[in-house]
Model the fold of this input.
Amino acid sequence: MSNNQNIRVVITGVGLTAPNANNLKELRDALLNQKSGITQMEVRYMGKVAVGNCHFDENLYQKKKMRRRGTRAGSISIYCAHEALKDSGLSMDSLVKDRTGIYLGITEHGNVETENEIYELHKNNLDASLWSHHHNPRTVANTPAGEVSLNMGITGPAYTIGAACAAGNIGIIHGMQMLQLHEVDLALAGGVSESTGTFGIFAGFKSQGALGAHDDPTRASRPLDINRNGIVVSEGGAIFVLERLEDAKKRGAKIYGEIAGYHINSDAVDFVLPDTQRQVECINAAMAKAKITASDIDIVNLHATGTTSGDINECEAVNLIFGQSENTYINCTKGFIGHAMGAAGALELAGNLPSFTDNKIHSCKHIENVDPKCNMKNLVNGEPVEKEVNFILSNSFGMLGINSVLIIKKYIK
Done:
């Protein structure tokens, strides 16, 4: 490692909104108590569909006029960024705004606005004069981070990172790297998604035979269950305040955890089908960077979307690495919140961070019939496990074969 890579980076603030929570305490309580945030929503052309929508106050940190000009992804980002900053103990006045960076992972952006405007266009006899003059700034790919920059007056680098469903992890990884390079002194990093605003994503998964459904929407997302039938599309966001350890210590910040290892690679195999071997390589490379072995990992949080091929391939990879480890427990989160796409990795990491202090490992949403191909030693199912936690490994994998693995370790003074 270079000297820059040896610079330690820690998490000092967390801001989030999920289908079952609007802050970290609420999310943790929901996960420990098996509280789902999945409901049903009417989607045009499709009827009622299981969905994970968030319920935060869009106008808490944003004027109504600016919300009308902006996007749902932007409003999620603004809410999470302010909540993260507040949680870190920093104030807007204390920020050195040209030394603060905003790095947000996204799956897709712009299709919500485009679909809605085309729908309105066809309802109004193709009258193009009704097309919104806000369309272009709403649909450029840097919009979520740019809206945070405008809202908070941050003049440092602000951009998004398109990395499919691996994006939440990659936003955090990129923020860490910019701190190590001394490009910024503070990073607001994570992932966001507004995916439930577009019928196209629902229709796309439906056409693939991969859209989760159940008469009881809270059971529509069933990762690892033999009767699972696909993904529940969700929105959400999680943004972390990242700082170099020396800066965090200097101001006496509370520290949630330290980034210990990470890796990103690509399958180069298929548009949507995952590759077990590339996932194995990604996990092993992250552990090598952290200078630890499989037996050091206390929690593996699976990507576990609830699709047959996705679940089985990942479980094969995890079993190959951790199958002999008595110390490692396996959980997953999407059964509670659905698949929050670009926000998924960041939200799922946030839900596990409190394990460092409460010494509990949250369960998967109760799996009634574990798929034999997904059965793993120490799979946490139904009730939390009490255990001292020192290392958390979080998997996030995405379409076109993008894989990301992030390892966080407990910070000990």
Remarks:
- Residues 233 and 339 are 5 Å apart (CA to CA).
